[in-house]
Amino acid sequence: MNNSIDFEFDKQHIWHPYTSMNNALPAFGVASAKECLLTLDDGRQLIDGTSSWWACVHGYSHPTIIQAMQHQLSTLSHVMFGGITHQPAIELSKKLVAITSPKLTKVFLADSGSIAVEVALKMALQYWQGRNQPQKQRILTVKSGYHGDTFAAMSVCDPEGGMHTMFGDSVTQHEFVSAPQTKFDQTFDTSELDEMRAKLESKHHTIAAIILEPVLQGAGGMRFYSPEYLIGLRKLCDEFNVLLILDEIATGFGRTGKLFAYEHTQRHDQIVEADILCLGKALTGGYISLAVTMCSDEVAKGISDSPAGVFMHGPTFMGNPLACAAACASLDLLAENEWQAQVSAIESQLNDELAEAIHFPEVKDVRVLGAIGVIEMNSTVNTAELQQQFVDLGVWIRPFSNLIYIMPPYVISKEQLSQLTSAMKTVAKNIIVSDHQASFISHG
């Protein structure tokens, strides 16, 4: 097998995420990866600032996860989950039931984050069929959210500025209210829930569930909002008999400074519990695709009482043993590696090193939460241009919209993190806006 990268074939034939076949974004060839470093095909090394879309929290080529996967690969890499079970799935489910909120006792092992959301929405609809309220088929959510790229997931993404607006009437029309506005550390304005209350008062009889990303709206703008919003929302769900779905695919497993973002509610009240919870991304440490949808006993009973009598979903690779083994190893590493201290140290360093960027001409905001650092620009940035500049600076940072952000692996060194923040500031400081498009001024 030829190990050299055929860039021309790639450009002509292979889709990459959110790219055009007419004018594709440049793709950099990665030959290998270890810890927090990506080695390009030409030998250059880049410090990874994205954890491969927020998933590789332990870095790359971690021996514990590799060993677990190699053992599983040689034993049982895959077997259908229909009528068959296996220890990796059982062990993973035990771990998840133990670390999530007590209400969540049932585990559905899905393929990817988008599918976990699809499963959650189907669970909600089928639950109400089992409770003799089949008219409850609508989903309520907040604007600026993102929940995935498949059709049901698209239907609960932001309806105006989201990535999926071009699909029109092909996407189911659901109910939306304004996004939470009170920032994470601000005093919560309870009037923020008035619109949600009004929507529930008028339409609760048709609404099956509310879905949202707790505390952090990720791809919808890297927005951090007050945990008290979740507390009020949970109370409204109980009052109006609506299920609460929390999408922790991006936030789960320590990224925001808590193991799960909903745990931030503990400092204001008792921890908010979801009826249905979606997990993914860092679940396997980013080594292989796997996601999970968990639900309560009550939701599971309602689904089982529905006319179908069973939950109507069952992917081919459901409960894949190789992925379950990777997830078990990743969860063990989280428990052993003191992720709280790692994330806390990253948060402190990000606060210290990014603060000055707020004074740059085209910077709108700088914000940090857990192992997330964001520089928000006044205008949309040129992703291809900035991506190249970051590579030239020895880091892998992929901006989107008007955001320059990092979500590094938890195992990153102080020196590596400083190189990431330095690159962010260098790029942000030298952006000018021309014809409503942000561009980078190169030095020299």
TrEMBL record:
Sites marked Participates in the substrate recognition with KAPA and in a stacking interaction with the adenine ring of SAM: Y18
- Catalyses which reaction? (8S)-8-amino-7-oxononanoate + S-adenosyl-L-methionine = S-adenosyl-4-methylsulfanyl-2-oxobutanoate + (7R,8S)-7,8-diammoniononanoate
Q: Where does pyridoxal 5'-phosphate bind?
A: G113, S114, D247, P315, T316
Q: Does the keyword Transferase apply?
A: yes
Task: Tell whether NAD is among the UniProt keywords.
Answer: no
Please give the GO cellular component terms listed in this UniProt entry.
cytoplasm
Q: Spell out which residues are annotated as carrying N6-(pyridoxal phosphate)lysine.
A: K281
Task: Output one GO BP term.
Answer: biotin biosynthetic process
MF terms from GO for this chain are: adenosylmethionine-8-amino-7-oxononanoate transaminase activity; pyridoxal phosphate binding
Per its UniProt entry, which superkingdom is the organism in? Bacteria
The pathway this protein participates in, as annotated, is: Cofactor biosynthesis; biotin biosynthesis; 7,8-diaminononanoate from 8-amino-7-oxononanoate (SAM route): step 1/1
Q: What residues does substrate bind to?
A: W53, Y146, K281, G314, R398
- Cite the entry's keywords alphabetically: Aminotransferase, Biotin biosynthesis, Cytoplasm, Pyridoxal phosphate, S-adenosyl-L-methionine, Transferase
Subcellular location per UniProt equals: Cytoplasm
UniProt main location, coarse: cytoplasm
Pfam families per the UniProt record, alphabetical:
Aminotran_3
Q: Which InterPro entries match?
A: Aminotrans_3, BioA, PyrdxlP-dep_Trfase, PyrdxlP-dep_Trfase_major, PyrdxlP-dep_Trfase_small
PANTHER family (UniProt xref): ADENOSYLMETHIONINE-8-AMINO-7-OXONONANOATE AMINOTRANSFERASE (PTHR42684)
Assembly with partners or alone: Homodimer.
Q: Return the similarity comment.
A: Belongs to the class-III pyridoxal-phosphate-dependent aminotransferase family. BioA subfamily.
Query: What is the purpose of this protein?
Result: Catalyzes the transfer of the alpha-amino group from S-adenosyl-L-methionine (SAM) to 7-keto-8-aminopelargonic acid (KAPA) to form 7,8-diaminopelargonic acid (DAPA). It is the only aminotransferase known to utilize SAM as an amino donor.
Q: What is this protein called?
A: Adenosylmethionine-8-amino-7-oxononanoate aminotransferase
Species lineage, top-down? Bacteria, Pseudomonadati, Pseudomonadota, Gammaproteobacteria, Alteromonadales
